């Protein structure tokens, strides 16, 4: 009996030792818009899941749900579902996504969006309804992303009604998403460093800079998250801008915050490029400080007011800083990544394993453009080596949600 006990104890010890943490960041190709799933696999066998945005239309959301259901067949839970801001190419598919969760018995910890706040500025609310302006209704590149563009007032009201059926909140600065719905045993942290045109001033501080009175677009209200794991760093910021007067320059305050993080040689191993690679985002300050090894551009060569995104100048700025770039679309044979037509949408998945040795494992797979975005062909894999400095631990940021309700100083 004693020997049996020892064997069982050794088995469980070995099992716990062999089970290590893993992080997956799934940039799901849904055309013009964003959809990112973040999955933390923890060393106690549990998971944490964060969904940011769900594209611009219900049929695409059905394809995304099928992807989630295949990926997480036994978990069936989204801990946090976030609309990064209230433009239809980000929240437009979330109504159907939440419906799919209900109909398929998935649990949702929180639905997060700024629409919980009242009152919403009439200027910003109108911007949400028109998805950036009536001039986009005559879109010369409509065929790239066959989704009707119209006054989104009905779409927004449908989303708000559906979101109200779930536990719901607006995030306070400093909130760690991996500890929002449970106390996960994890080294992974995903901190809200910006929201509602406010940016944390300093690492570990409850104070922030408030730009709300200067906001001109719903893009300026995008949630901003810094994700860290064993030296790996990743930033995602919705449709944040970096050049005024078109949008507020909120990228520069982000870099000022990052400069205060107490590690030597801080940089971001990976960044989801802001605003689909718009020429109004990804400024020099942002790139100089973050210096991303790997950049993902979620887009579909879509035209807004006759200008396609991503812009060549944005791609050129990334190349200037030697960033490896991938896209959530594949241009056709006669097109470039900054002009022309899209042949396929594409998923781009980053996998980070513990211990992190600078290796970013990338998996990509193509999708059809229409319908429920079915997969096309097998997955492809490659690896990117991030040879820059990686601090193995960043001191725990305190969970300060309750102390950030007042204006910053």
Map the helices and strands.
Elements (H helix, E strand, L loop, with lengths): L1 H17 L3 E6 L8 E6 L5 E6 L5 H14 L5 E6 L5 H4 L2 H10 L3 E6 L9 H9 L22 H11 L4 E2 L19 E7 L2 E3 L7 E3 L13 E6 L2 E5 L14 H9 L10 E3 L11 H7 L3 E4 L4 E3 L2 E3 L2 H9 L3 E4 L1 E3 L10 E12 L5 E9 L7 E11 L24
Helix pairs in contact: 2-4, 4-6, 7-8
Features:
409 residues; disordered C terminus; eight-stranded mixed beta sheet; 20 strands; alpha/beta; single chain; ten-stranded mixed beta sheet
Can you describe this structure?
The protein is an alpha/beta fold and 409 residues long. It has one domain (20-403): Ribonuclease Z/Hydroxyacylglutathione hydrolase-like (Metallo-beta-lactamase, Chain A), CATH 3.60.15.10. The protein is built from 9 helices and 20 strands. The protein has helices at 2-18, 58-71, 88-91, 94-103, 122-130, 153-163, 251-259, 284-290, 312-320, and strands spanning 22-27, 36-41, 47-52, 77-82, 107-112, 168-169, 189-195, 198-200, 208-210, 224-229, 232-236, 270-272, 294-297, 302-304, 307-309, 324-327, 329-331, 342-353, 359-367, 375-385. The strands form 3 sheets. Strands 1, 2, 3, 4, 5, 6, 17, 18, 19 and 20 form a 10-stranded mixed beta sheet that branches. The protein has an 8-stranded mixed beta sheet with strand order 9-8-7-10-11-12-13-16, covered by helices on one side. Strand 10 (224-229) and strand 11 (232-236) form a beta hairpin. The longest helix has 17 residues, at 2-18. The chain is globular and about 45 Å long.
């Amino acid at each position: 009996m004693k020997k049996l006990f020892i064997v069982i104890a050794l088995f469980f010890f070995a099992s716990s030792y062999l089970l290590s943490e893993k992080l997956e960041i799934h940039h799901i190709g849904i055309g013009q818009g964003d959809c990112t799933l973040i999955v933390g696999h923890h060393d106690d066998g549990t998971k944490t899941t964060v969904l940011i945005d769900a594209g611009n239309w219900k049929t695409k959301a059905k394809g995304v749900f099928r992807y989630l259901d295949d990926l997480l067949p036994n978990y069936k839970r989204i801990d946090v579902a976030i609309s990064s801001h209230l433009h239809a190419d980000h929240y437009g598919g979330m109504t159907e996504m939440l419906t799919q969760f209900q109909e398929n018995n998935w649990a949702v910890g929180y639905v997060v969006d700024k629409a919980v706040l009242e009152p919403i500025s009439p200027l910003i609310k109108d911007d949400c309804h028109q998805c950036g302006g009536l001039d986009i209704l005559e879109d010369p590149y409509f065929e790239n992303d066959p989704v009707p563009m119209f006054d989104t007032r009905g779409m927004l009201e449908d989303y708000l009604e559906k979101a109200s059926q779930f536990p719901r909140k607006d995030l306070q600065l400093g909130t760690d998403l991996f500890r929002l719905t449970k106390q996960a045993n994890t080294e992974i942290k995903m901190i809200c460093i910006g929201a509602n045109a406010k940016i944390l001033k300093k690492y570990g501080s409850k104070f922030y800079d408030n730009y709300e009175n200067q906001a001109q677009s719903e893009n300026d209200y995008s949630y901003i998250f810094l994700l860290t794991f064993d030296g790996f760093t990743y930033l995602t910021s919705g449709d944040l801008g970096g050049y005024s007067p078109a949008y507020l320059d909120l990228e520069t305050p982000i870099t000022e915050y990052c400069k205060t993080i107490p590690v030597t040689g801080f940089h971001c191993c990976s960044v989801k490029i802001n605003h689909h690679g718009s020429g109004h985002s990804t400024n020099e300050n942002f790139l100089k400080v973050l210096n991303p090894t790997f950049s993902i551009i979620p887009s579909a060569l879509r035209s807004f007011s006759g200008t396609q995104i991503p812009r060549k100048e944005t791609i050129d700025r990334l190349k200037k800083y030697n960033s490896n770039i991938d896209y959530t679309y594949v241009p056709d044979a006669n097109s470039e990544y900054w002009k022309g037509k899209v042949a396929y949408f594409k998923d781009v998945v980053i996998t980070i394993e513990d211990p992190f040795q600078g290796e970013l494992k990338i998996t990509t797979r193509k999708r059809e453009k229409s319908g429920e975005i079915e997969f096309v062909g097998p997955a492809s894999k490659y690896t990117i080596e991030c040879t820059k400095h990686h601090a193995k631990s960043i001191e725990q940021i305190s969970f300060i949600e309750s102390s950030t309700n007042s204006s910053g100083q």
